[in-house]
Write a structure and sequence with these properties.
- With 217 residues, this protein is an alpha/beta fold.
- The protein has a single domain, classed as Spore Coat Polysaccharide Biosynthesis Protein SpsA, Chain A, CATH 3.90.550.10.
- It has ten helices and eight strands.
- Strands 3-2-1-4-7-6-8-5 form an eight-stranded mixed sheet, with helices on both faces.
- Helix 1 links the parallel strand 1 and strand 2.
- Helix 9 packs antiparallel against helix 10.
- It is globular.
Length: 217
């Protein structure tokens, strides 16, 4: 397996060192950070850790697409900059034989409300085939290319791609992706999940992404 790891980032200096350290344990992987115009030390942190830094217009879909275009591996791993993979992620990926996979979601910290939200997210991923980007995405390069990869979207780029991958091809990897709870702590452990579900439902109903992006933020 020739693994390429792609991390989109924007002003991520507070989370990035832990994220990159967890990912750097795969010896020989191609490591690409795609910066969307950070005003902090994001690019310097990545460069100092030995990551290749490229730039793309701000927007996770655009950044992910640019990172994939720059990658040369036959397997791609996409991880958000505020997510830390558990140490056993390497064994989980090396032992994976499917075409596309995602990690079990958890949140950094020990809040019981976080555990409930994570359980619901993992249920959604397993039963509906809709993991979000916080859970990472491992995908064979040839499948990614056949599907057209990430689209240049202001929102929902993760759900858009996993829907094209299809539930039958998605598998849960036996490792945890622990992501930052900052947005939930800011907006509320009830309000934020309800907002996310509402936006997902409105997107399925055809509401324009420009409007959904305003609601999300």
């Amino acid at each position: 397996m020739r693994l390429s790891i792609v991390v989109p980032a924007l002003n991520a200096e507070s989370f990035l060192p832990a994220c990159l350290a967890a990912l750097s344990v795969w010896d020989g992987a191609e490591r690409i950070l795609v910066d969307g115009g950070s005003a902090d030390a994001t690019r310097d942190i990545a460069a100092a850790a030995g990551w290749r830094v490229i730039e793309a217009p701000r927007g996770r879909g655009t950044q992910l697409r640019a990172g994939a275009a720059a990658a040369r591996g036959d397997t791609l791993l996409f991880v958000h900059a505020d997510t830390v993979l558990a140490p056993d992620w390497v064994a989980a990926v090396r032992g994976f034989s499917g075409e596309a996979g995602y990690f079990r979601l958890a949140f950094l910290g020990a809040d019981r409300r976080a555990a409930r939200v994570a359980r619901l997210a993992n249920w959604r991923a397993r039963n509906l085939g809709l993991p979000y980007g916080d859970q990472g995405l491992l995908i064979a390069r040839d499948l990614y290319d056949r599907l057209g990869g990430y689209r240049d979207m202001p929102l929902m780029e993760d759900v858009d791609l996993v829907r094209r991958i299809g539930r039958a091809r998605l598998r849960e990897l036996d490792a945890v992706a622990a992501t930052s709870p900052a947005r939930y702590e800011r907006d509320g452990w009830v309000v934020r999940p309800l907002r996310n579900l509402s936006i997902l439902a409105l997107w399925f109903l055809g509401m324009p992404l420009a409007i959904l992006a305003k609601l999300y933020r």
